[in-house]
Amino acid sequence: MGRIVFTGGTVVGAEGSFDADVLVDGERIVAVGTDLPADGAERVDVSGKLLMPGFIDGHTHMDMPFGGTVTADDWDTGTAAALAGGTTTIVDFSLQDVGGTLQEAVNTWHEKASGKARIDYGFHVAITNLTDEVKAEIPRLADLGVSSVKIFMAYKGTPLYAEDADLFEAMQVAREAGVLVMVHAENGDVIAKLQEQALAKGNTSPVYHALTRPEEAEAEATNRAIQLAEIAGAPLLVVHVSCAAALEPIHRAHELGQTVYAETCPQYFAFSIEDLKKPDFEGAKYVCSPPMRDAWNREPLWRGLQLGDLQIFGSDHCSFNFEGQKDLGRDDFTKIPNGCPGVEERAQVLWSLGVLEGRISENRFVQVLSTNQAKVHGMYPRKGTLAPGSDADLVIWDPMLDTTVSTANRHGNVDYTPYEGLTFHGGPSEVYVRGESAYRDGEVLAEAGSGRYVERRFMKPEI
Ligand code: URP
Ligand code: ZN
Ligand code: ZN
């Protein structure tokens, strides 16, 4: 690893785009501009390409036990897929065991990631049991480099589900500790009841996954979480917002000046409830929570991204094979493991459907994929910007690159892709992680284990 100067490209940042060279020394960016002191540096000609800060995905699930099985991607294959999509840092969800501590959750996730991750990474902790010990641990999360906890208002009947009292108290403790609370906002009680009623009527096929998780159940829980956060005085991050109804309380909160961050995901722009109706159980490939919605929701979600109500675009990559995993629910949709792969496709979906369709600018693209992610997830300015002193995580984006997705050209470990046959225009041709070429022209170059843990600190950013 040495000095590299990227020449002839256009730097695309959160604030604007400009023609400039980028000089890297070792793991860091040292200069961005023209006429850089680059004597002796290796020259990489990026004419005709865009230079962007490495993408950050604050929402992945690697090697995670869920729904009676374990995700298909571990930290090796999942981070290979991430790299192929231009992602240089992920923040993954470590899960507290019901009888365990947050420290143990973080330790377990370190064991899973260590020696396997090909990109940099951090951990959230999903709280499943708010014991007195856990409450005492939250203020110490900073010592572990963890700046965020997730609480599930859904998945009633599983250890993940939390009652309002625990959600609210976690918000109070987190506020004092300077830790960000993230919520999976769907009304778990209503969904459990609707599922029970559907199964009693013999409605077992995948589309009932969506029909028993109505938009209003997400909207209600989103509003409830926002109101509880207001009472607790806590900043909030609502993850995987899927529909217009859930966006409404977020918009209202912003009008009232409340600190509410919100994330949406590629699957809600690429797919709809119609995909869950595919025959031969193919609909199971599109089962995730919240579910795919009626397609009309997409335009309001785009507006949310344009206007700033939705500030980050994460993948919620949670991959299960069709054979042997999704098919656990052939006779009962509630047994289909929830989740879809998307870490590899995230940026290309947003570029093709967002930037090329004129819905968002290339700078908004960088904000929601990288800069805002770094800010919300407590890694800015080390990550999320091409600036002197920042880690040399770079995406060389080729606007002329066409990719037709197939399972065969994916870099993860899943036996299908929901994006099969879709063609994306524009994509990453080369990716650098801390000054090392980690991906080039379809090939993952970074070694398993080369990724490093990133300590994070929540700074309540204004975005
Ligand atoms: O279906 C999903 N989203 N699975 C992953 C777990 C979660 O709720 O984020
Ligand atoms: Zn969730
Ligand atoms: Zn998730």
UniProtKB/TrEMBL annotation:
Positions bearing N6-carboxylysine: 150
Domain Amidohydrolase-related per the UniProt entry, residue ranges: 51-435
Keywords in alphabetical order: Hydrolase, Metal-binding
Organism (species): Rubrobacter radiotolerans (Arthrobacter radiotolerans)
A GO CC term assigned to this protein in UniProt: cytosol
Molecular function GO labels: hydrolase activity, acting on carbon-nitrogen (but not peptide) bonds, in cyclic amides; metal ion binding
Pfam families: Amidohydro_1 (PF01979)
InterPro entries: Amidohydro-rel, Hydantoinase/dihydroPyrase, Metal-dep_hydrolase_composite, Metal_Hydrolase, Metallo-dep_Hydrolases_sf
PTM comment text: Carbamylation allows a single lysine to coordinate two divalent metal cations.
Family assignment from sequence similarity: Belongs to the metallo-dependent hydrolases superfamily. Hydantoinase/dihydropyrimidinase family.
Coiled coil: none
TM helices/strands, residue ranges: none
The protein's name in its UniProt record: D-hydantoinase: dihydropyrimidinase
Cofactor: Zn(2+)
